[in-house]
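User: My collaborator and I are trying to settle a disagreement about how two of our proteins should look. Neither of us wants to argue from intuition anymore, so we agreed to look at predicted structures for both before our next call. Could you fold the first one, then the second, and keep them clearly separated?

Assistant: That sounds like a sensible way to settle it. I'll keep them separate. The first protein:
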Amino acid sequence: MVVQAFEYILRDGRKALIRSPRDEDIQGVLDFLYISAGETDFIVRYPEECSKFTPEGEKALFDRINSSENEAMLVCLVDGKVAGNCHISWNNRLKTRHRASVAVALLREFWNQGIGTRLTQEMIRIAEENENILQIELEFVEGNSRARALYEKMGFRICGIKPNAIRLKDGTLLNMYSMIREIAR
């Protein structure tokens, strides 16, 4: 699904553009995936795992998502750089079409600018426009207090824990927390 582009002002006064990804964003998204994976242990991949992502693969992904009726991806561009992205998806199976899954990620240099809030708000808006969706689901890694605070501010609550879901290179095991946000209908 293609989402209409919009601009807004970041906390530091810069302009941000949020829109569905386009072919011209391919290299920026690839760079974003690699950089974000190395900035924090709260992303579920390491930078070296990003080598599997190719321009051709990203183009196919963008084309598939942008033509889908069951998912959307947004990129946030600041000064032409991919600062963050998010994704929402759901299915049409009768028993599970009431659930949408969301993911949001930002580059560290753009933390505390309101981008995570704005991307999450847009994912909630998309879910609320689909009459079948009754709840939005997401996950965050243990220790990511910033993500937890954002999601709780946006109305999500913890509904489950996956013990030892993440294993870091040094052997540290981290839990993964599941959250939901119910949509009143």
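The second protein, kept apart from the first:
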Amino acid sequence: MTGAPPTVVAVLAGVLGLCVGSFVNVVAHRVPRGESVMRPPSACPDCRTLIRARHNVPVLGWLVLRGRCYDCGLAISARYPVVEAATGALFALAGWRFADRPLLLAAYLVFAGIAVALTLIDLDVHRLPNVIVLPTYPVLGVLLAVGLGGHGLVRAGIGAVVLFGFFFAVAMVAPRSMGFGDVKLAGVVGGMTAALSWGAFLVGAIGAFFLGAVAGVLLMANRRADRKTAVPFGPFMLLAAWASILGASGIGQVYLDRIGA
């Protein structure tokens, strides 16, 4: 896609994201249960009929079926097309952002798919599985090395170590406030944001706590949670990371410029 207009790259990335979103739905459902994401093929949980290829088209398949199994009429959750559409949108935004750097785009598309999967799993079971988080380090490390090289890669490594270390310290001091899955994810977030700039790193790091605090206040105000309620932190980390990647890094850079960093 080298030299292609940003709009073309965004559209192609978005289409890829729709397909990846369909797979992410499978990952989010099966990985927490320790099941294979490859076998068996997707089937209706009620009548056990395999999903036909023409009904497995992202978003459109659900719309054509009107949200019900073709064979038994069981309602199909709207979560499936929403996740597919959201993944497609995130891929499209990443495509637009990195249209002029296709090798770097590959790293952020992989990170996008992983981010959606981990967000869903953490919301569902309050867990960030090692089977997804740990392989992310070498995979994204190699992709960043190819897409960045040199100074940017060093900065990504420093960012990963610093944010991992900070979250580890928080988890040791206040173990009830943070799970070790968040600590392991912090290294990924730190690396992927610092790879772009220290401003992006700062927004990704601080933004997670800001978003988490706002969500906590809103939940308590609506009496849906109290001070002892466990709220998954991974989604806030990933949301803040992607906000910084897609443009909010400027906020952090302004602050760094003001303090002369």
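Some points you might bring to the call about the second protein. Residues 106 and 258 are 33 Å apart (CA to CA). Residues 129-261 form one domain.
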